[in-house]
Every structure is written in C-alpha cells, then in structure tokens.
C-alpha cells in the first residue's frame, strides 16, 4: 500500500480553496467515533474545531493527513499548550478499513516526529469504546475500569508503545427527562454548603469580574483531578486566556454555560462546571471541566455546580437533547454525583501515554 503523508492545512474558512482536507478529516473522525462508541455524542462541529485549531499565544496545533491512492484516509493532530514544556496531545482519526494497520502506524509515527520538532516528549491520546461486555479486558494500573483488549484502537496503541494509564467513563444525561432528582439534590447540597458558598451562573462571555478566578480554577484541572498513571504538566491560565477563548468560541457559534461556586470569605472560586454546544443547538451538549478545589471538598459543591448547570442550561438551550461527560473510573465521588443526578453510562475511554526516548 502506497501511503503519502502531507501536512494538514488549517484553512481560513470552511469554504476556502484549501479546506478540503480539513473537512474530510472532520467527517472521517466523526464517522470513526460513531463506529467505536455506537453513539453520536462525540461529533466535532467543523466551525468549532476550526476555531480551536487556530494558533494563539497559548496554543498551537500541527497536523498531517494520510492518503492512499490520492484519497484522504486518516489524519493526526498534535495539540501543544505553549504554557507547558514537554507534553502534547495526539488526536488520531482513521477511515473505516484503515483503523488498524499501516495507515494508523504511519500517522502515529508522524505524530511523534511533529512532537519532537516542537520539543515535546510526553504524548497523550484517547480512544473511545462501547460499554458492551467482553472476555478479554485491558485494565489500567488504577484497577478501575477496563477497555476491550482486542479491538482495533487498543491494538494500535499498544503496538505503537503507548501505555494505558486510566479509563474514563462516558456518561449521558437526558435533558428532556424529569428534574425532580436534580432539584432535590441541589436543595440539599445548598443547605450542606451553607452561606459561605455562593453559586454564580452565566451563558456566553465570561463576566470580567470572574475571569481571573475562573482561569485559576481551570488551571487546576491539570493538577487536581484524578490522573491515574498519567503524567500531566501544570497548564497556565489567566484572565486574558479565558477572554480570548470566549472571542474565538463566539466567532465559531459555540455557546458555553458556566457555573461557579464562590467562597465568600476569600472571594476564591471553590468549584466550577462548564457546558458547551456548537452552533447547531439541537446537537448533544458537552460537559467540559468540573472541579471542586481540594481545600473546599466535602461540602457537596460538585453537586451544586452540576445541578445548577443542568437546570439553567436546559432553560437556555431547550433544543439540546443530552449532556455528555467523561470522568475517571477511580473518581468515585464525581461518579456518585453523576449517578444521583441521573447520568447513565454511555461508553468508556482509554487514556494513553507515551514518553519518547
């Protein structure tokens, strides 16, 4: 098989003359994740992805496409956070029939070359899997969760020298279902938290008064969430990075809803939750970061940000049918919150790591 690897062009617009490869990769990636997960919860919106891939003072993405007989059959993106020094995230997409074999191997090798050119030696990537029971299971070092040992995604990652560091559960919440449990849990959690903790919610651009505290909380996602056997660097976030992200998302038609809990005695952000949807508001909603700062745990703040976010989001975006979220299988506290609120398992993700020599 003659495989040609070309650089990925990030076009100025989706209808630009050089946009064909980018559009092809979005289509191929969405089809692959639907095959692997059995759901449409993880589709990328091309407008949103285009906005995310443009270089900023904080991040840069470098990619490549693979062609067989002139046809695009896969690609890779290497996402680099400029505020870190050694790590990069790899996002591999493969067309049906090429998800395990020489095309996958060539793209993973190209990902390593890109990473090395940018001085990166610690790679992370994720694979998605259905929740169907199987006999042959690969269990991470945490002992929590498993993924199928013999499916294509697992085989290619092991063959490339990646190690499974963690399993995450993908859970879904029916936004059109009853909210009795949400309201009941929220009332109880607010009572438990007491008057020292004040919830805040907004949709769209971040209020400037909260930008710095929100940024500080986002940064702690790289150090304060369960990471299994994965090694993560501390990412740097400040108010300007949050506000710049808001502008890019607005240009792409992306809407975000954010819930904070403010610790009144200090003014610090004690917990946060993020919900996001692309310009098609009838599509699934993605839950991004959810974190309770370690010094404020034990007061049910995770329940508060989850419940307020779901209620207010459904009021603001009633067309979206479902919220999709990922949590580490060893993060029993957050899984307990999800299950109590009404999230149900929809699949599992393998979190992989490779340290280059």
TrEMBL record:
Residues 12-186 form the N-acetyltransferase domain. InterPro entries: Acyl_CoA_acyltransferase (IPR016181), GNAT_dom (IPR000182). It comes from the Bacteria. This is N-acetyltransferase domain-containing protein. It comes from Microbacterium marinilacus.
């Amino acid at each position: 098989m003659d495989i040609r690897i070309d650089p990925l062009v990030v076009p100025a617009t989706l209808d630009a003359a050089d946009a064909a490869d980018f559009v092809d990769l979005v289509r191929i990636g969405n089809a692959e994740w639907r095959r692997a997960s059995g759901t449409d919860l993880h589709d990328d919106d091309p407008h949103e992805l285009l906005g995310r891939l443009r270089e900023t003072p904080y991040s840069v993405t470098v990619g490549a496409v693979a062609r067989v007989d002139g046809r695009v059959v896969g690609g890779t993106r290497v996402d680099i956070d400029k505020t870190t020094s050694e790590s990069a995230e790899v996002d591999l997409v493969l067309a049906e029939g090429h998800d395990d074999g020489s095309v996958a191997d060539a793209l993973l090798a190209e990902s390593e070359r890109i990473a090395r050119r940018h001085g990166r030696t610690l790679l992370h990537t994720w694979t998605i899997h259905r929740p169907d029971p199987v006999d042959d299971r690969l269990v991470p070092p945490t002992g929590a969760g498993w993924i199928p040992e013999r499916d294509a995604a697992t085989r290619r990652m092991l063959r490339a020298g990646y190690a499974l560091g963690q399993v995450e559960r993908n859970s879904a919440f029916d936004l059109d279902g009853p909210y009795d449990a949400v309201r009941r849990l929220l009332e109880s959690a607010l009572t438990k938290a007491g008057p020292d903790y004040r919830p805040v919610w907004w949709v769209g651009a971040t209020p400037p008064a909260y930008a710095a505290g929100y940024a500080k909380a986002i940064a702690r996602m790289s150090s304060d969430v369960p990471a299994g056997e994965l090694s993560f660097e501390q990412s740097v976030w400040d108010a300007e990075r949050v506000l710049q992200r808001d502008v890019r998302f607005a240009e792409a038609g992306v809407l975000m809803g954010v819930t904070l809990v403010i610790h009144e005695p200090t003014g610090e952000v004690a917990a946060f939750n993020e919900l996001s949807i692309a310009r098609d508001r009838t599509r699934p909603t993605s839950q991004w970061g959810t974190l309770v700062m370690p010094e404020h745990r034990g007061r049910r703040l995770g329940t508060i940000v989850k419940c307020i976010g779901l209620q207010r989001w459904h009021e603001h975006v009633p067309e979206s049918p479902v919220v999709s979220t990922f949590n580490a299988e060893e993060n029993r506290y957050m899984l307990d919150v999800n299950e109590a609120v009404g999230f149900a398992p929809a699949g599992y993700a393998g979190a992989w790591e490779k340290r280059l020599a």
